[in-house]
From TrEMBL:
It comes from the Eukaryota. Residues 271-344 form the CEP76/DRC7 peptidase-like domain. The keyword Coiled coil applies. It is found in: Cytoplasm, Cytoskeleton, Flagellum axoneme. Residues 231-259 are annotated as: Disordered. Residues 398-682 form the Dynein regulatory complex subunit 7 MORN domain. GO terms for cellular component: motile cilium. The lineage of its organism: Eukaryota, Metazoa, Chordata, Craniata, Vertebrata. This is Dynein regulatory complex subunit 7. Keywords: Cell projection, Cilium, Coiled coil, Cytoplasm, Cytoskeleton, Differentiation, Flagellum, Spermatogenesis.
């Protein structure tokens, strides 16, 4: 590290020094503007006015062991600044809320909160990011002069990136993770919590799994299919049109690039703090970073992290001795490697590995550091136990709700029971980056008595889709509609395993109804019904729903293949044309068949239909069964088949009426549920139990 720094010093020319001075001057001007904006944003809260009179004595004084620790830290800092004069000062012993110097490792207070989610890193990170209000650093290129205790940060629910990181690290270490606070550098977007250029996590598509090719080199190579010259000409025309559209898109991209923000003049200098979680403990497979502002995990090769100065936990302090010109991509996080990380308190009898090219008058300090380092034990944290009540845990948002702006999206979060309809999250998707035209809105609910947990509203199609958890009295899974009025277009999905008929989906309009089934013994998988127009006189007269029922024109059913039956006896499709009095059967195909077998029973022209009468003759029966057995040619067999079909047609008409009545009941129940929304109170919700 020192060799690299010396090279850089040798290569600097007078022109470089002048350019550096100019850039420093510009940076100072920008810093003045940023400090003014920060003071304007922080005018609503003054940290100097907080009450520290009731804090424990450990907050106001240092014990003998802590004084010894600060002395050792000063020795370490002197050697570091002497041997690495070009590096920034370390963040070692800032002032706490009482104005007392405290070593950063003793500010970490390992705590395991008594909530199930807080046993996992995702729950801890989500709680910290939601519970605290983000405050930017007063000076973006230097660490803060003070570091308050996690208990004070939890009390006032606000802090900067260092406060966020120390609190999150305390919770992670308490949960058993190998976690560390990181003092380093990051991009402007990460330091200022600007996520307007990122895609919302709710909208990210899952990574596609690549299809593995067959490695068998001895597989059969089939001849190429013949190609049509006309199709090739059409493809060439389409490619030319695609090129023209691509050029237009490129022009639009150029316009978008112009609209992008300019490069940050302080890039690489902005100080940030985050959390490092090493692999090993708690079965963590890979080392990763956590941004405490968002609670999201990041790879150690993420380009948003530009460098690391030091890391610490409740046991020790390490200084990064690796080159960070490429950010954190090439860094090794093997803390036992003394060439990559300089440890403040050696865990063994090994001496410190800081460069030894120091003056002779500092050898006494080195020897004293060795003696202290070998016999020194890190004192316990001076911070009181971190406590979060049930009410605070269940309502983590200090401003009532949290709003996050993404690229063409806005996410809003509320605590449970904050809204009377149980709304806890809303995601709005926009057509433009300025977020003016809404495309889609998704809402998530909790503790609804009707078991509604998500609602999707598409503003382009005006479709509303409600999703339900299992357990609804009507076995609803999803409901898509534009209005709760009947016959206006509804699609209902059910939990089919809880139904006797195996129905999992039903779509209904004013003229049609389609039902889909699964796992039925008769292998029925689809039923389609066509309705005719109502009689205007009956509709005007009013009356019951049965009197105003839509006339059934046709019922069509589809069946899966039954391998236990011959193909020419296994029905694939049957059609009941109720008004025309025609029944049509289509059978499944064998493997090498082309045309399926069919049987059609039609009404005899010129003969009046009598109720309960079944008339069968060769004139009203059309069949095509080239591979059928002798029984298909027997008229008595066809007569019995027609008799069964007539009885089934009557039952099907009743099933259709039952389906219509069920849809009307669903709409009535849903309308009542939306008019009288009720929330269930969990037995684990202490705050709601107290209100009750």
């Amino acid at each position: 590290m020192e060799a690299v720094e010396e090279k850089e010093e040798v290569e600097q020319t007078p022109d470089d020094v002048i350019s550096l001075n100019i850039s420093d001057f510009l940076d100072e001007l920008e810093l003045e503007g940023e400090e003014a904006s920060v003071t304007g944003n922080e005018a609503d809260f003054d940290w100097s006015s907080i009450d520290t009179s009731n804090l424990p004595s450990s907050y106001k004084t240092n014990s003998r062991q802590e004084k010894k620790l600060l002395q050792l830290a000063d020795h370490f800092l002197q050697q570091y600044s002497h041997l690495c004069p070009d590096r920034k000062p370390l963040f070692i012993h800032p002032l706490n809320e009482c104005g007392v110097q405290k070593f950063v490792s003793t500010t970490v207070r390992p705590t395991l909160l008594p909530y199930p989610d807080m046993y996992y890193w995702s729950g801890c990170a989500s709680f910290v990011s939601n519970y605290l209000i983000m405050e930017p650093l007063k000076c973006p290129i230097t660490p803060p002069s003070s570091l308050y205790s996690p208990t004070t940060i939890v009390k006032y629910q606000r802090g900067n990136c260092f406060d966020f990181s120390v609190l999150l690290c305390s919770l992670l270490v308490g949960a058993g993770y190998d976690a560390y606070c990181v003092h380093g550098y990051a991009t402007l977007e990460m330091c200022s919590l600007d996520q307007t250029q990122e895609v919302c996590p709710r909208l990210r598509k899952p990574p596609e799994v690549p299809v593995k090719e067959d490695p068998n080199k001895y597989r059969i190579k089939y001849p190429l299919e013949p190609k049509s010259q006309f199709e090739l000409q059409q493809k060439a025309k389409e490619e030319e049109e695609a090129k023209s559209t691509q050029e237009e898109e490129r022009e639009e991209e150029v316009v978008e690039e112009v609209e992008k923000p300019k490069r940050d003049s302080l890039h690489g200098l902005r100080v940030h703090a985050w959390v490092l979680v090493l692999s090993g403990k708690r079965k963590v497979p890979e080392t990763f970073f956590i941004n405490p502002f968002t609670g999201n995990d990041h790879s150690t090769k993420d380009e948003s992290f530009l460098g690391i100065e030091s890391i610490w936990n409740d046991k020790n302090y390490w200084v990064n001795m690796q080159d960070c010109r490429n950010g954190c991509k090439d860094l090794s996080f093997d803390l036992s490697n003394r060439f990559c990380w300089e440890i403040m308190f050696p865990e063994s009898n090994e001496a410190s590995q800081l460069p030894t090219e120091s003056p002779k008058n500092s050898t006494d300090d080195m020897q004293e550091k060795k003696k202290i380092g070998r016999s020194f034990e890190m004192p316990l944290s001076w911070v009181d136990r971190i406590k979060v009540s049930c009410k605070e845990y269940e309502n983590p948002f200090p401003r009532g709700k949290k709003v996050i702006l993404y690229d063409k999206a806005k996410q809003e979060k509320w605590a449970a029971y904050a809204n009377p309809d149980g709304l806890v999250e809303r995601l709005t998707v926009y057509a433009d980056s300025d977020r003016t035209e809404e495309l889609e809105v998704k809402e998530w609910f909790e503790h609804r008595k009707d078991l509604l947990y998500m609602r999707e509203v598409n503003h382009q199609t005006q479709l509303i889709t409600d999703h339900f958890n299992p357990g609804h009295p009507l076995l609803l899974k999803a409901h898509t509609y534009t209005s709760l009025e009947p016959e206006t277009g509804h699609t209902v999905e059910f939990y089919h395993k809880a139904r006797v008929d195996g129905l999992w989906k039903r779509s209904e309009t004013a003229t049609e109804m389609t039902e889909y089934f699964e796992e039925r013994e008769d292998l029925l998988h689809k039923r389609h019904i066509k309705f005719g127009e109502r009689d205007q006189g009956m509709e005007m007269a009013g009356g019951t729903a049965e009197a105003n029922a839509r006339p059934i024109v046709q019922i069509k059913e589809y069946f899966h293949r039954n391998p236990k039956k011959p193909a020419d006896e296994d029905i694939e499709e049957r059609v009941f044309k109720v008004i025309d009095d025609v029944i049509q059967l289509t059978y499944h195909l064998e493997i090498y068949d082309i045309i399926p077998s069919k049987v059609v029973f039609a009404r005899v022209i010129g003969r009046e239909k009598r109720e309960g009468e079944i008339f069968l003759s060769r004139e009203n029966t059309v069949k095509y069964q080239p591979w059928s057995s002798e029984k298909h040619k027997n008229m008595r067999y066809l007569y019995n088949l027609l008799w069964e079909l007539r009885a089934e047609q009557k039952d099907l008409k009743q099933l259709v009426r039952d389906s219509e009545a069920e849809m009307l009941n669903i709409l009535t129940v849903r309308e009542n549920e939306e008019a009288n929304i009720k929330l269930t109170v969990s037995i684990y919700s202490a705050a709601q139990r107290e209100q009750r």
